Each structure stands twice: as structure tokens, then as C-alpha cells.
Amino acid sequence: MKILIIRLSSLGDVVLTTPVPRLLRKKFPNSEIHFITKSEYSDIYINNNNVNKVINLEQNLKKTIKFLKSEKYDLVIDLHNNLRSNIIKYSLSVKHFTYNKQSFARWLFSNLKIKLVIKHITKSYIETLNNLDIKDDDKGLDLFLHEKDLYDLNKMPNEFRNGFYVLVLGGKYKTKRLPVEKSIELCDKINRPIVLIGGKNEYSDSLKIENFFRKEKDDDDVSDILNKRTTIHNLCGKLSILESAWILKLSNVVYSNDTGFMHIASALQKKVVSIFGSTHPSLGFFPYKTNFYVYQNTNLSCRPCTKIGLNRCPAGHFKCMNEIKFDHIIL
């Protein structure tokens, strides 16, 4: 059997699909399994033994469909269920199964604050396979790393050699990103060596955090009195996805906004501290099958205001992040 799995974006969603090819492989050990996604997310599957081929989505959808037709699939698993995935799926004219997005339940919670039971998105992905008599194996997410992407710890300052913590900056939407001032407060309370992880878009904010603690370290008297041990190693914009994943794997604890690297940390079975602003864990995107703790402002009637994030706070105050409390530090 030749199977195509579709999930075109984004980083976290692609990571959250990883039990599906594993379960298909167990059910159909001799099958050929392909996965199609955008090129920037293909690394998630590049080392995955359960997938025979990773296909990059072309800008020209007709070109992509022409190529996929030539592969002659027997089955399509649509884990995206949007306009493009439906065009691809129906163009191939083969048996298919499509995942239930639970969109209405999420809309009710985000817009009317009617809280229904919403399954974790990975559970929904897996339930797409129900008609194939495939059930969850409860083994969580997968991320296979290769030694060629291993980050050399010798490049880090000496104080990082005996353990460090990670703070993942960024997020696609502003209302999912912890502000710089709150990130500095969190780093100060962690009070340990901290590696900053993020993309090029986060580099400017990461420099502000790095420079704050550099100035603090320059004042030896204050450092001694307050026993400050926060040291920043800034890797924002300097690593690939898989190199960043190695940093997460080697860390003690991963602190992360509700973003793709939170799910990568889950796939690596790390202890995760999740920071939720405008979104909410009960929308079904919390860390999956790993030990985790959540920071969120539970005193707001306006949360959640969105299921995926927004570019600005609808109420104008952004209290979900600006007034978040770091009362319990996980070390």
C-alpha cells in the first residue's frame, strides 16, 4: 500500500502529526508512506524511519498535484483539512480520510467562552485512522535527531557545561509572545545558565535580554549580594530547527511560549514549562505526553480570545502576558 499524509504547516502542527506515520507503519509494515509539507518544516520528518519520502509543497499547486498523481497513491490521510489540502486530496481521486478540526468547539470557547471538551489535536489526528482499525499506542510524539546536527557544547561558556535551561522566544503571533520585560523577569527568577532559542525575527528581543544580564554581571558587588547566577547564551537566529532541537534535548528544562518548539520539546520528552497568553491549553494544543507545567493568567474573562494567536490584543491591555505570574519556578 502506498500512503500520502498531508500536513502543510505549521511547525508545531507538523510535529504533532508524528504518531500517525508510526501507527500506519505498525498496521501496514510493508507500506510506502510519504509526507507532504512546506519545505521549511520538512526537517521534522527528514530522519523519521516511518516515512519513506518527504515531499515539499511547491508554490505552483498544479505542479505539486501533477507530481503526486505520478506517485499513484492508494490512500490519502488529510491532517490539514483546508482549501489546499482538499484540492490535493480530491485531485488524486483515491480513498481518503480527513481529520476533524473541532473548529466549532474552539470557536465557542474563544469567542463565547463556552468551554466544551476539546480533544488534544494529536488525538484528533490519530482518530483520523479509526476506519483503518488503528488506535493510539500512547507513545507520544516522535522526533529523530542525527548527530550531524548536534551542537558542540564546547562552543558554550564554561558555566553551561554542567547543565542549562532553555527559554524559547517568539511565536507566530504577538499575543502568544512573552514581552521582553517579562522574559527578563523569568530569566532572573530561573537564576541559572539560560540558552535563548528562536529565529531571526527574535534576534532583536534576544539582544535586549542578553544585554540586560551582561550589564548586571558587570556589577560584581550587586552580583555577589543577590547571588545572581543568570547567564545568557544567545543562539537566536543562529541555528536550524534540528540544531535547536539538539539544544532542547541537552537542556534541563525548556521554557516556551505556545509555539512549535514547545511541541518539539514534548517530542523529546523534556520537562516543559509552557507560557500561554491569548490562547489556552484547553483548546487542545498543550504539551503532549510529557511532563509539563503551565504559566497563564487565570484571572481574565477575556481569555482565550483566539485559538491560534493575534497580532494585537483586542482589549488593548495585553494583561494575559503583561500580568502573568512566575510564582513557581521549575528547575
Labels describing this entry:
alpha/beta, 13 helices
End-to-end Cα distance, whole Å, is: 47 Å
Uncertain segments are none
The average pLDDT is 94
Lateral strand order in the biggest sheet: 8-7-6-9-10-11
Task: Count helical runs.
Answer: 13
Cα-based radius of gyration, to the nearest Å: 21 Å
Largest sheet: 6 strands, parallel
Helix residue percentage: 25-40%
The general outline is: globular
Q: Class by helix and strand content? A: alpha/beta
- Number of E-state strands: 11
Give, in order, the helices and strands. Answer: EHHEHEHEHEHHEHEHHEHEHEEH
Describe the structure.
With about 325 residues, this protein is of the alpha/beta class. The chain has helices at about 10-15, 20-25, 45, 60-70, 85-90, 105-110, 120-125, 180-190, 205-220, 220-225, 240-250, 260-265, 320, and strands at about 1-5, 30-35, 55, 75-80, 95-100, 165-170, 195, 230-235, 255, 270-275, 290-295. The mean pLDDT is about 95. The strands form two sheets. The chain has a six-stranded parallel β-sheet with strand order 8-7-6-9-10-11, with helices on both faces. It has 13 helices and eleven strands. Helices cover about 35% and strands about 15% of the residues.
Write the SSE topology.
Elements: E1 2-6, H1 11-16, H2 19-27, E2 32-37, H3 43-46, E3 53-56, H4 61-71, E4 75-78, H5 83-92, E5 95-98, H6 103-112, H7 121-127, E6 165-168, H8 180-190, E7 193-197, H9 203-218, H10 220-226, E8 231-234, H11 241-250, E9 254-257, H12 260-267, E10 272-275, E11 292-295, H13 319-322
Parallel strand pairs: 1-2, 1-4, 2-3, 4-5, 6-7, 6-9, 7-8, 9-10, 10-11
